[in-house]
Amino acid sequence: MMEIDSTKKAKQLCIDQYKKHIFLCVGPECCSQELGEEVWIHLKKRLSELKLAAPGGSGSVYRTRAACLRICGDGPIAVVYPDAVWYRKVDKDVMDKIINDHLVNGLVVEESVLAKNSDLQKEIKSE
Ligand code: FES
Q1: Which residue among 4, 82, 121, 126 is least packed, with the fewest CB closer than 10 Å?
Q2: CATH for 17-126, among 3.40.50.12780, 3.40.30.10, 3.30.420.40, 1.10.150.530?
Q3: pLDDT 10s per residue in the chain (127 long)?
Q4: Model's pTM, two decimal places?
Q5: How far apart are CA 86 and CA 90, in angstroms?
Q6: Are 43 and 91 in contact (CB under 8 A)?
Q7: Can you give the residue ranges of every domain in the chain?
Q8: What is the best residue among 71, 74, 79, 87 to mutate for testing ligand 1's pocket, by most ligand atoms within 8 Å of CB?
Q9: From its phi and psi, is residue 106 left (phi > 0), alpha (psi between -120 and 50) or beta?
């Protein structure tokens, strides 16, 4: 196994400068892998187009492609941290709402919420 200097890698990625982190499950249990991959590619493209993928900006978003978030139904499943808001049935249209409303404007997309930690909702609003 290749030795990786994790401190150096974290510094290269500016990992300490991101404001939000979105995890997206790409299936195969909660949704088809085709749908999961389609939404994942869309998420990467939109974050890049909106210049949200780079660290440091006010809306900078880190993204992670997950193999399973242990819900395994009503997918694709996504979760946004540090807000701890979980979303279900995240197709490309729902992902656009999550990006525009939640990640950019700090508004929870209530109609797509699966679960949320109410203790962490003090600084974000509902639509
Ligand atoms: S396969 Fe998506 S949550 Fe388990």
Answers
A1: 4
A2: 3.40.30.10
A3: 788 899 999 999 889 999 999 999 999 999 999 999 999 999 999 999 999 988 776 679 999 999 999 999 999 999 999 999 999 999 999 999 999 999 999 999 999 999 998 877 666 666 6
A4: 0.91
A5: 10
A6: no
A7: 17-126
A8: 71
A9: left
Distance 109 CA to ligand 1 centre (A): 20
Please tell me the distance from the alpha carbon of residue 22 to that of residue 43, in angstroms, as a whole number: 10
Atom of ligand 1 nearest to the CA of 28: 1
